[in-house]
Amino acid sequence: MPTYKAPVADTLFVLNDVLGYERYANLPGFSDAGPDVLEAILEEAARLAENVMHPLNRVGDEQGCTRNADGSVTTPKGFKEAYDQYREGGWMGLSVPAEYGGQGLPYAVHTALGEYLSSANMALMMYPGLTQGAIAAILAHGSDEQKQTFVPKMTDGVWTGTMNLTEPHCGTDLGMLRTKAVPAGDGSYKISGQKIFISAGEHDMSENIIHLVLARIEGAPEGVKGISLFIVPKFKLDADGNPGERNAVSCGSIEEKMGIHGNSTCVMNYDEAEGFLIGQENGGLKAMFVMMNEARLGVGLQGLSMGEIAYQNAVAYARERIQGRSLSGPKAPDKKADPIIVHPDIRRKLMVMRAFNEAGRALVLWTALKSDVAHRSGDENDRQTADDLLGLMTPIIKGVLTDKGFEHAVMAQQVFGGHGYIEEHGMSQFVRDARIAQIYEGANGIQALDLVGRKLALNGGRAVQAFFKEVGDFCEENRADEKMAPFTKALKKGLNDLQAATMWLMQNAMQKPDNAGAASTDYLHLFGLVALGYMWARMVKVAQEKIEAGAATPLHETKLVTARYFMERVMPETGAHLARISAGADSMMALAEDAF
Q: If phi over 0 gives left and psi between -120 and 50 gives alpha, with beta otherwise, what is residue 254?
């Protein structure tokens, strides 16, 4: 059976020592979660993840969700009780403003503990995860009345939320959606249409489900310019704001999926359901993007989470499983064979997973702090700079960490050999669950196109230039430090490759757009390697200082070894990405369609 232990010590090292968590004490919410409180929150979240959520992970996979004859959905055994513990503990409203019943704590804290809970039970945590995004969209674009009506109940967790975008005939290309909204004459709209792949669309864990639905008002322009966003509750609200009669929205079926069986991914049918416009007419995509961007960061976190739990179980198995002898001589002479952790190729897999997980954790938390600054700082320049980097890193975190999360789940499965293919060891579930993260909230090819096609040129390239400067300045400031040289030289080489790739795109993508499309995925991963390498260089600098001050722990010593592995054996991949980018699109686009 799989096990899980939340990496609290590593999270605290990153937040406190590397990212300077206390430096943000002047921002709203941070003074309420100082280092001692932060540690207590993470420890309590770890207990919830390890003792409540994780034991249900396999249960959810085996039982799945059940659609009943009346269209209601029953979640796996124990899910509702676990969700109730999550809700009653106040975890849903951790970072929601206090005026709506939340605690107003930093988004970085919410992100840190979110990793633990998602590692423990990704399918279960999708129910509150979608609600968090819905809350964000209503707070950003809802009317005061809508905020007061819906957000407190959602913050308390007695109501949950969803996002309804995809339709049978259109996925990412939302301009083709057919769901329509007809004014009812009383300020509401009648929403009709079908949505598919709706996570947490119907379930038994909350009193009401608040659906955020994209639809086109009659007479609106075609394409994305004519899309509006609507609040459509499962139960209509009575005069006192409580759930009343059932709305005309129902679960037509539960999708039969490869993984995340514990989450009810539904086909949702709207038959003149009562809905209320949120934001401006034809401004739905802008409003929904608030939810989508938060969801993309959350999905990136899922990729990290699945990579982490897969790694932990691969390490445990590699220590116990004996097979063969070490190439350099027996390491367990009292046994018939050595544990497989002595073999270099097993070590390669474990080191790759560890190196990406620890740097990924730092990158996610660094970005979460940017979100806190962007939304909480009183300095306009600080807000703008942070928001620039937040927007730039969103497709990178979503794309790179989910690609690697799936890759590492497969890699961990390989450590188990044949046992990894057997359900009782749990590795199959990690592989199956991790796969969806590469697909939803915009498949990773879309993330790459977003980075290359939108984020690079946004505001004259302000965000990417700021990132280049920050990494370049770090390398220059530490150039004379001999102990940092192996790390800064490798990071600078990666940065040079990234800058060269960016220049190539500037020179070759405008006149031939296919060059941008052909380069996009390599560029995404090249950028990700540099961002992760920057996190490693920052962690190494702190670890070196701790060692020199005589305050080192085993955590600091292992950081240096893992960082060296990343710089020596992973960072050189930037050169391969650059070579593929520079090759252009000709060979990729040369074959006629009927030649495939």
A: beta
Structure tokens, 192: 């009709």
Nearest CA to 17 out of 489, 559, 483, 517 is that of 559
Answering whether pTM is above 0.90, one says: yes
Tokens in use for 8? 């609290």
The token pair that represents 393 in the structure block: 């890193």
The string of DSSP codes covering 458-498 is GGGGHHHHHHHHHHHHHHHHTTT-TTTHHHHHHHHHHHHHH
Cα torsion 138, 301, 364, 21: sign: positive
The pLDDT tens digits of the residues spanning 446-500 come to: 999 999 999 999 999 999 999 999 999 999 999 999 999 999 999 999 999 999 9
Backbone angles phi, psi at 254, to 5 degrees: -105, 130
Query: Which residues are annotated as catalytic?
Result: 441
The Cα-based distances of 322 to 326, 334, 338, 353 in angstroms read 11, 12, 5, 21
How far apart are alpha carbons 275 and 286 in whole angstroms? 18
Cα torsion 218, 223, 225, 231: sign: positive
Q: Which residue type is seen at 30?
A: F
Q: Where are the beta strands (DSSP E) in 121-256?
A: 159-164, 180-183, 189-199, 208-217, 228-233, 235-237, 243-246, 249-254
* Terminal Cα distance for the chain, rounded: 44
pLDDT tens for residues 263-311?
Answer: 999 999 999 999 999 999 999 888 877 777 788 999 999 999 999 999 9
Instruction: Determine the 3-state secondary structure of 7 from DSSP.
Output: coil
> In this predicted model, what pLDDT tens digit does every residue of 146-162 receive, in sequence order?
999 999 999 999 999 99
Gyration radius of the chain over CA positions:
24
Other C-beta atoms closer than 10 Å to the C-beta of 447 total 28
Closest CA to 273 of 160, 195, 200: 195
pLDDT digits (tens, 9 = 90+) for 91-143: 999 999 999 999 999 999 999 999 999 999 999 999 999 999 999 999 999 99
